[in-house]
Amino acid sequence: MSYCVGISTKYGLAFMSDTRTNAGLDDLSQFKKLFTWGRSDDRLFTLLSAGNLATTQAVVSEIDQDFKSKKSQLHRCKSMFEVAEFVGQKLSQKVKQHSENGINGESTFQANLILGGQIKGSKPSLFLIYPEGNFIEATEDTPFFQIGEIKYGRPILVRAYRRDLSMKDIFKLLIVSFDSTLKANLTVGFPLDFQIYFTDTIKSGVEGRLNANDPYFVDVSNAWSRGLEDLLLRLPGLTLSEEVNKQKE
To answer: What is the DSSP letter of 104?
Structure first.
């Protein structure tokens, strides 16, 4: 399983992914799921992948080959929408190629992608790309996308996200979302890759990798746990019965 998140904010885009891949409880491996391509003069793309590893690696390889080619289609794209179409076509082709019966909901070669980036002259964009090759774009109403094991980290994002959060606070939000997922599901694991992209810079910005013993991650995780415990105790109490009231007295 995987967990990947892409967030659109007032100040740019933020991405984070785990690196754990499993083919059974006793077959755990680490593979990178966050990839970036760019030309410093006019474009930068970041891709997050979740799903069948053979499928996602094949898609990443084809994108990489195209971007390095002198006749690159990605170099000629005039908008991030065109980039999303290109990546969606590649994903759909690979799923069909690997699946004997074509694309269907039960295919073991399914994969989902999050694509974000900016082409000079347009605003940063974020897309969720489905195995069929179709996609949706993030809006102010739907400002973030998750793929993989999404249910444990989603409540944090839904409750705490605001478009005007600083990138420092967005990074804390990502860490808390991943911390909740890591604690609840062993198929999501360290290290975590991240990238913070600031609007109109056309460069990767802040990027790196967090391990389980990273001091900042540990501090945020511990502070979040303590904060939840303290808040729980401060919540209004419910009077269950007269007997409970007597016990309190």
So the answer is: -
Q: Output b/e per residue, 131-158; b: 16+ Cβ within 10 A.
A: bebebeebeeeebbbbbbbbebbbebbe
Task: Identify the residue whose tokens are 């959060």.
Answer: 165
Cβ-proximal residues to 142 (8 Å cutoff; 6+ apart), any chain: 136
3-state secondary structure of 120: coil
Residue 28 has pLDDT above 90, yes or no: no
Q: Give the 3-state secondary structure of residue 235.
A: coil
Q: Total structural domains in the chain?
A: 1
pTM tops 0.85, yes or no: yes
Give the pLDDT confidence score for residue 186 in this predicted structure: 86
DSSP β-ladder status, 20-22 and 28-30: antiparallel
* Residues 182, 118: Cα–Cα separation, whole Å: 30
Q: For residue 248, is it within any domain?
A: no
Q: Is residue 197 part of a domain?
A: yes
The CATH number assigned to the domain holding 193 equals 3.60.20.10
| Amino acid letter, residue 110 | Q
Whether the Cβ atoms of residue 177 and residue 188 lie closer than 8 Å to each other: no
User: What span, in angstroms and rounded, lies between the C-alpha atoms of 186 and 25?
Assistant: 9
Whole-number average pLDDT of the chain:
92
Task: State both tokens at 133.
Answer: 């090759």
State the pLDDT confidence band at 104, using cuts at 50, 70 and 90.
low
Q: Where in the sequence is the domain holding 188, given as residue range(s)?
A: 3-236
Residues with Cβ within 8 Å of residue 137, at least 6 apart in sequence: 81, 84, 125, 126, 127
Per the domain annotation, does 51 fall within a domain? yes
In a domain, 246, yes or no: no
